[in-house]
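Q: Got a minute? One more chain.
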Amino acid sequence: MSAVGVGRQTQPEIDPTADRLGFQSLMGGHGLQQNEPLIFELAGDDPALWAKTGVDLPVDPEAEDVSDLTGLVRTAPLGLPGLSEPEAVRHYVRLSQKNHAIDLALYPLGSCTMKHNPRLNEAMARLPGLSDIHPLQPQSTVQGSIALMHEVGRWLSVLTGMPAVALPPRAGAHGELCGLLAIRAAHEARGNARKVVLVPTSAHGTNPATAALAGYGVVEVAQTLDGRVDIKDLASKLDPEVAAVMVTNPNTCGLFERDAIEIARLTHTAGAYFYGDGANFNAIVGRIRPGDLGVDAMHINLHKTFSTPHGGGGPGAGPVALSAALAPYAPKPWIVADGDGLRLEESDAGDSLGRMAAFHGQMGMFTRAYAYMLSHGADGLAQVAQDAVLNANYVKARLKGVLSAPFDGPCMHEALFDDSWLEGTGVSTLDFAKALIDEGFHPMTMYFPLVVHGAMLIEPTETESRAELDRFCDAVLALAQAAKAGDRARFTQAPHLAPLRRLDETQAARKPQLRWMTVAR
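A: Always. Here it is, folded:
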């Protein structure tokens, strides 16, 4: 039984003469000829094997009598696989060898900014006094940590040109919710809650989802033929029911919204607030302050711009910068400096929207981000944006003569291509992306943004060298040549060299097997 999808995959034979980089040479071929069993399957079907453990748990002869805990005492085995430490370690190491990772090669996911996490950041996050503190310690014992958080907020305030920064949100989407709740609180304070949020088609997909979660109706704003917000369509939809306009800038087409100041003027004239999605802040950090464009609220994905690990569900951090108009509604707690040092203000006084998380942010992410800020400095952060944009335009310049770009001119931090160049080849965007795995690269983002048919969105980030970009572009161009030459088998059955072949994606979606089912013992 597989963890996802239906049934096991038949393992392909690996061509020993293959000269492409691929997973085989990246990982040295370790374990690639095998399907790794689930950890439960490793224990086998013998009940005696399930009873063994790699840990000796002492029995306390003075343990309290539990006979009065009627209905709560376990009467059946716990159901955990009985494995020794070597067996468990080897299982997870083998699994790790089947995964692509940023430490193996370029990870060109557009709009996700999968970039290198400097080891300096990791060393700082593991320092005693930062890695071993407890969220319930007295504040007098963690003054240094609170000061670090305060400094992170100060840097973000300076870089965004906005006076207040809320640190509690745990991720980008959580930050979006924070910003919209602050906007809601501001409207309610004026006695007009409003009901609608406008979202351009070029915005991140979380924007309309967050607006709906916050209780707003979502109205779509069209984009122009060159991939920007259609100002006329926006103006026609700005009525008294609109609470906010959510604009991703640079947008998901990898383009800068050159009319951002006009968008802010129209939005404010209508009595609404301008929400700026800051997920792509790494393209403009140190070069443009969103507050100067008229943005009222903007979440910042620390993993995208400030090199903290991409959470994958956690831990993460999505601080929110707020304009002077929204600062009074920031979530609590916030950091206050007084005669006794720094403290987290928990008072219910004022107009705060309330608490958004149990504790004040994610300390490890703040430490990593602060290390990145200090190691780069103001000039270095500006170069981050410059290099991100330069790398993306280099990729676009190398590929656009073969791949088709839906929008003319330079891009910002990511290069966008459509699938029109694949017409007549019998190869789809999905096929092409799967074949890229055989070249040792994680695929680019597929079919997003939705406004571009068969989209292939590539973000090289600022952390890749020209040599690595050339290696990636060479692989893409070689695949493109093979597709146009009619070598369909290379694509429709790809990947050939990865540990597992393709699942039946239709069946995996309709009949998923997401957990291991206990068998009778």
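A: The chain is about 35% helix and 10% strand.
Q: Perfect, thanks.
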